[in-house]
């Protein structure tokens, strides 16, 4: 009887260690703060919806990649109201959660935030087809940071937005 009790106790202890060890290993390996994930608002835009474009400013600064996402998709992910597109000016206007207005114009590297200029190294672009169906793609980091969100990238090319 005593041997069986020892075997049952060893089994329970082994199961408990197996359940805890992946969590402990994850916290130790990443070096991330030990905050429950439920405290974050995380949104993921799959890699299939992200355009990575090479941006070049001049010979001294060289070139680098920027992630672009279609503006209405990004607004949805950031829980912003639907943007308004002005086809003549190729511009987008949208509101932030706090009521401030943002104005983006294709080809202009930056944004107007309540009349104040926010500079950035990449500009929104308009991509369309011969049927006149145009979509505005914006630099993810520009819009995310204006709206108060952080941006990270996963190894597969997906964009992770968090607050």
Structural features:
Copper Amine Oxidase, Chain A, domain 1; globular; 3 helices; five-stranded antiparallel beta sheet; single chain; disordered N terminus; 163 residues; 26% helix; four-stranded antiparallel beta sheet; 2 domains
Given as residue ranges, the uncertain stretches (5+ residues, pLDDT < 50) are 2-38
- Net shape: globular
Task: Give the count of helical stretches.
Answer: 3
Secondary structural class:
alpha+beta
CATH architecture of the largest domain: 2-Layer Sandwich
What is Rg? Answer: 23 Å
As laid out across the biggest beta sheet, the strand order is 4-5-6-7-8
| Binned strand content | 35-45%
Layout: helices, strands, pairs:
Blueprint: H1 2-30, E1 42-45, E2 50-58, E3 62-70, H2 71-77, E4 84-86, E5 91-95, E6 101-105, E7 110-113, E8 116-119, E9 125-128, E10 134-139, H3 140-146, E11 150-153, E12 159-162
What does this structure look like?
By secondary structure, the chain is of the alpha+beta class. The protein has 2 domains: 2-34; 42-162, 2-Layer Sandwich (Copper Amine Oxidase, Chain A, domain 1). The protein has 3 helices and 12 strands. The protein has helices at residues 2-30, 71-77, 140-146, and strands at residues 42-45, 50-58, 62-70, 84-86, 91-95, 101-105, 110-113, 116-119, 125-128, 134-139, 150-153, 159-162. The termini are far apart. Mean pLDDT is 75; it is low at 2-38.
